[in-house]
Amino acid sequence: MGELEPLLNDPHLWNDAEKARKLSQEAARLRKAVEGYRRLESDLQGLLELWAEMGAEQRAELQPELERAGQELEELYRQTLLSFPYAENAAIVTIKPGAGGTEACDWAQMLYRMYTRFAERKGFSVELVDLEPGAEAGIDHAQFIVRGENAYGLLSAEAGVHRLVRPSPFNAQGKRQTSFAAVEVMPEVDDTVEVQINPEDLRIEVMRSQGKGGQGVNTTDSAVRVVHLPTGLQVKCQITRSQQKNKELALSILRSKLFEIEFKKKQEELARLRGEARPIEWGSQIRSYVLDKQYVKDHRTGEMRHDPENVLDGDLESLIWAGLEWKAGRRETAAVGDEE
User: Fold this and answer.
1) Taking the chain, what is the end-to-end CA distance rounded to the nearest angstrom?
2) Residue 138, Cα to own-chain centre: how many angstroms?
3) Where's the Prokaryotic-type class I peptide chain release factors domain (predicted)?
4) Region of residue 338 (left: phi > 0; alpha: psi -120 to 50; beta: else)
5) Per-residue pLDDT of the chain (340 residues; tens, 9 = 90+)
6) 336 — alpha (psi -120 to 50), left (phi > 0) or beta?
């Protein structure tokens, strides 16, 4: 708040309405957190003073108040885990199967369902951008936008390679199979974030939509692919009947991708200047889902779950918060190794 106060008191602040709006929102968020902390501090102090003077029966009656205070303290702590840039933004999630053909495509589809179910549980909305079916089963590529309170902040902990071990449903002998799929997560950025895109650097292609969809989607040239020539980045959108809508959505995602590239470069440069080791993010296995042994293990945090069916149905809260603690440096990296 000390850093924001001079900016909020600047008489010229509202010359830039969008900047003023964002500063005001950030100030309101911080004030709410500070007020919550001060109220909780006062409540706990009062409870501790009473506790020393109470007998066993009275302390038992006070237990619900202590539990409420504990829940509020946990919520305040979690807010500190979501204080990094763009945590409040929508999340653009991309799922790609690894090598392994049908098995990997099926695993990618299971992950797609897991994250959409997580969004439903949180009351978030999901906007599908692109969904390409696999040759025999599952999906070959999925991209969607999750919108809700701190959507990017929460889902950022899910970025990485996810591993599935199970008896294969595609093998008559039920042979045990290992499959991999990669999950990419980036914040959606709007026009207020400066990203330079030269129209001459773009190649825009239109084509007929593929896969499932309404009749109008599949029989008109409504799908759009935008290629950013300098970087080779490609974004395809085919989910609506409107070619213009698909183009706008593809350009929006391209903006977010280019922003993420520049943001990561800056973060890596800061880490280099501080002498920090550069983390291996892409290609590193972050979590294993071992279905025949009934467990899910996060390899970064050591967090274990023994209800994989619930995890795959979107019950990700404990895994996500452990991952955010790890990202914030408040949880030690788990020892290398696996039960497998």
Assistant:
1) 49
2) 22
3) 208-224
4) beta
5) 566 677 777 787 777 776 777 777 777 767 777 777 777 777 778 777 777 788 888 888 878 877 887 787 888 888 889 988 889 899 999 999 987 789 999 999 999 999 999 999 999 999 998 899 988 899 999 999 999 999 999 999 999 999 999 999 888 787 899 999 999 999 888 766 677 788 888 999 988 776 554 444 455 678 899 999 988 888 988 877 888 888 888 888 888 888 888 877 776 665 555 454 433 333 468 999 999 999 999 999 999 999 999 999 999 999 999 999 998 888 877 665 555 6
6) beta
Length in residues, the chain: 340
